[in-house]
Amino acid sequence: MVTAPAVPEIFEEELHSAIEARSETLQTLRELGPPDLVHLIKQPIRDAKKQVGVYHHVTGMDASSSASLAAYINTLTFSPHDKQHKVVSGLYCCYNAFSRLDMRVQVYIPGTVESYCIDERGDKRVATDELWLETYLCSVLRAYSYADDGSGDTIKKIVGVRRFNPITSTESEHKFLDAAERLFFNGWQLGSDPEIQVPNLVSNHLTTGLLNYIHTTGRYASGINLFEKLRTKDPEISSLLARVYIEADEEVKAVQLLHEVIQDLPMDYSLLDCQAEFCNKKGRGDLALEIAKRSVVSAPSEFGTWARLAEIYVSLEQWDLALLTLNSCPMFTYQDKDAPRMPEPQRVFLPIMPEAICDEIIDSPVDDVELVHPTLRKLHAAGFKGTFLKAYMLLTEITKKIGWDQLLKIRSQVFVMEEEYRNEKQTAPHVQTTSRNASVTALRSPSPTPKANGEVHGEVEEAPSDAEDDAEDDAPNGGPSSSAPPALEKPSHTVASEVVKAGSEDPHPVTPSNLNQQNYTHFHNKRLCERWLDNLFMVLYEDLRVYTIWRTEMAQYRSQQLLYKKSPEEWEILGELAERLHHEEEAVDAYENCLQMKFSPKAMRGMLKLEDGNGGNVRDICGALIRLVTWQYRWYSEFSPNLLYTIRKLIEEEGAVKIRSIIQGTSLPQHVLDLTHQYAALCAAFRSSGSDG
């Protein structure tokens, strides 16, 4: 492990207040728990009566025993930044999400080590070997969950976190997978991702962490071996095994496995979803459709099954049914990661690396909001998470393919619009409208029949151009606050399902026999749009409006050979906006403009993702990787699954020798190069060991 150059210190206003705050919040934790808390008591060398409390957070430390945590505290007894104090005691707190206990190791310097655990009521308990096994597994899962490079809101709120890689060798991998195997059938107790309504055997934080680890490191043989053993105890686990087979390019085995297991479990939605996703990615949406419908019938309360069906309708270009299916998706309130609730500190000390690094990397952790135009700050789509983010991305994908005008046309064909509802209500007081049959329509629609020209029955004619293409001819004169260009029609509201009273169910439900003859333009055959989906259309309109204005202004300035000026923060937002709307070239353009003005980890990550996905220049990708490693190192992080995955893929494509040569040729401090080499060496070691890679 590379020794961190410095340790962040958060000073308490009152001694032990951080420990008390952590103990009070134990009963509110619902997920994997917060990062580990390390609390130190310092006293001045010349005044033994005065004591100071400091703390920081940690992820990725080996929490398999009290000895490993005590060893970490012992590494903190000397600080090059504080030679006026000495550490007299330390407390390491690590949350066990299985048993809902906080495991604690108290170290007195010099002196003894005491380990115990605290329950939700604050009572002390004995720390057993079984509890340490659970704690270790939770620690590894948290390391991957909290290593999202600072993009999540929870991560940003936590100050002073040191992140370490929990698995740095095949020995530590065996330890992790052995713990996962022993505790696998208790994984549902840990909760699940926000898109999952009810955690189960194959959808929980443990399975997510396992798949994330296998994806990051490419240790497919290890994953296959684990799930092969587990599926003998429960065949439902075959869905996880099939996913690893597919990622390992063992598609024939995956297809055979799914076929065999679905014979015995014909309504297992995780198996059906895996099969539907595979068929759709292979361009066989016609096969995927019926499978996805069965998956929805099997788990109608899960967002993922409906989203998959909508995704397949999009690939089949059945835009109306895609919207109806999206409208039927059950939406869940986003549950963020557990975050520590700490009292206001007296002061915060965040030391910089001892050796100088590029000035561009010393990035301010807080962006200057005053430099961002109010319209850009109010783009609501930037804050979407969970089910709402995935639904929005499906909506933007449809828009990218058929254009905004065509999307509005289809929307008005399948949903009751506010104005027509008002008119119909005036002419016919006892209007009946279908309020809950969108899902029935989506499920009962017939499978697509290929036409001679390759089109699909039921599809809507594609719009001739995208919204931003039309806007080039009608460029607005103002900035982002200008009114919408004529080419971008503002959507009118639909009638939400809450508006129509209960009991207005359509007396003639949709059936397979009458679907094709159904006239969506007829008022009585339309559906009621969910309020959340209606809001997504408004948010999408605002995204498209701002994007269209930006691209139009850019074209105007370039035609006049003028410099188009934006602040780095604005370029960053515009890059995210273009990426949300699936305009990758424009996103890269915005990120590049941001990085020319200052270093931005968000813009650099966006560039890296887009360039790597499009086969960018290897040296440019390595340069971006090294700068991100440097930035993370400055903020006490030695672990990023995203960077580890990118380096692994580069080594597979270009070879380890070439990548190491490029890394060594940069002019950054040696400890940064060492950490980058460590990433590369870990990838190469994993790739060469066993039968993986």
UniProtKB/TrEMBL annotation:
UniProt GO BP: Golgi to plasma membrane transport
Ranges annotated as biased composition (Acidic residues): 461-475
Source organism, top-level taxon: Eukaryota
Compositional bias of kind Low complexity: 476-487
Start-end of Polar residues biased regions: 429-446
Any single GO CC term annotated in Swiss-Prot or TrEMBL for this entry: exomer complex
Annotated Pfam families: ChAPs
PANTHER family for the chain: BUD SITE SELECTION PROTEIN 7-RELATED (PTHR31975:SF1)
Name of protein: Chaps-domain-containing protein
Lineage: Eukaryota, Fungi, Dikarya, Ascomycota, Pezizomycotina
